[in-house]
Each structure stands twice: as C-alpha cells, then as structure tokens.
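does this look right to u?? zinc ion version
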Amino acid sequence: MNQGHVICDYEGTSYRARFWEGRGREYEDLVERIALRRLLPPRGRRLLEVGAGFGRLAELYAGYDQVVLLDYAKSGLLEAQERLGRSDRFLYVAADLHHLPLAPGACDTVVTVRVLHHLVNVQSALRGIAAVLRPGGAYVLEYANKRNLKAILRYLSGRQSWSPFVTTPYEFAELNFDFHPSWMTHELHQAGFTVDAGLAVSHFRHPLFKRLASPRALAAVDRLMQRVGAVWKLSPSVFLRGHTPGSGAVVTEDLFCCPACGKGSLTARGDTLVCAGCGALWAVTDGIYDFKTPVAAQ
Ligand SMILES: [Zn+2]
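got this back:
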C-alpha cells in the first residue's frame, strides 16, 4: 500500500491537544479559517479534506451536501467523529493520500491544509487529487513557504546557511518540508491544475508579535494583508486555489474506488466493502472506512 512513500503518521499522537489547544496557536487557527473561507467555493455536492486530522476545519464546509474527512491516523478521525457525529453527511476515511480510495470525479472540492509539507512526493499526491476531482473542480491547498521574510533576513544576515531563493524543497526536520512558491506553482501546473487565486497567510506567527497583540487583533491585520501580500508571498504560509480543466458534474454512482487495484468498485458485505476488481476486502470499523490495509479474505 505504501510502497515508495514514507508517511508522516499522526496515529495516537493527540495532535489536537499537542499542537492546537492552549499552545498559543489561536492566531494561526484564525488566519487559516479566514483564508479558507475566502478561497473555498461556498457550495457543492461533495468536499474531500485530505489530512483532516480531528476535523478542526469541518464547520467551514457547511455548504456541502457531503464531506469526506480523510486521514492516515484513525485516532484523529475518532476524535472528529465524536465531535461531528455519525451520519451520511460526514464520512470518516483512513487511507494513504497517495492511494485515495475515491472514484474518479467524485468530488467538487478537495482541501489540504498543513499536509503537503509532510510529503516527499508532492507530485504523486497532486495527481491523485486531480483524479478524484470533477472537471472544473477546485483544489484549495496550504503550504509552508521557504521564501518567507524571516528566512530571507536570516539568510542575508548570515544566520542561516540555506538559501530561501533556491527553488528546491527544504527539509528543515525529518518529513517537514518548506516549499518555494515558484516550485509549488510549477508542480500544480504539472499535475494539470490552473492556479486562479492565492493568499499570503500568517504574517505575524513570530512570538514577538504574539506578545504585542491579541490573536484576534493580529488576525484582523493579517486579513488585510492576505490578498496584497500574495503578490510577493513573503509569509510563512501560503494558500492557493487551483482548478482541474473543463467543467462537469460530480460522479454520483460510486463514491469509493478500491485503492489496491485503483479501479474496482466496492460493494458492502456485512462490515466490509469488497472490490469487484481484485477481491480485496476493506473493513468499516467504529464508523471509519479503513483503507490502510485490506482485511484477510474470508
Ligand atoms: Zn481492488
């Protein structure tokens, strides 16, 4: 399943408590919501969030009939389910993002926030995302920007050895990459996307700013800077919106598609889904569709 891809796995880490709650990240949360609201097509049949974690951003998807929250870590999805409940509107899917278990054209919109910066093979992920979007579907993404103002100042003053102007990704910690804006735009084009909007986000992430003003005040100023800042993209976080070519409706017959063979449609058999193509069986446990490893044939 995961051959050729190293995965940054948040399983069992309580990402919510460890990273978000009481950690002085209210500002980041606020500005990311502002950016996402601005870029998301407000309505649609189906939205997929890849790397949804505990569903932090789920209430922004109110205009969608169905929301698929996908993550590699089941622990985060269980937290999301506790908060959002079990229904046909929210589907919880554990899967490797390089093998999305969704049918081609099944989504109007795909979102990835704080996800791409963990990927060694961004191009493979982008192509997979393009495949599950309908023609003319939207992809809203966030990435960590290596050419940010702090990195530029540190580099120019000799306090940082790596150049923020070199376009190749910079791995600042294991499985944590910062990307150059030109590189990311090129990758999106390679995967077939047309980029039609961008926002520079999180200008005031530095602790110095957080000591000077409240998260809400900083977020209000960041809001004013997101559009104009996108011209230079000197912020540590950048949001983009891309579209797949053409126009067309979402495919509604099949939602899931077998990630093992990449083509078989799946039908329910008890607590499992069985692939018509390769016979793989996938478990549905505790309200979570588990596409990480097939269960043994019975
Ligand atoms: Zn299959």
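The longest strand covers residues 133-144. idk if thats expected tbh
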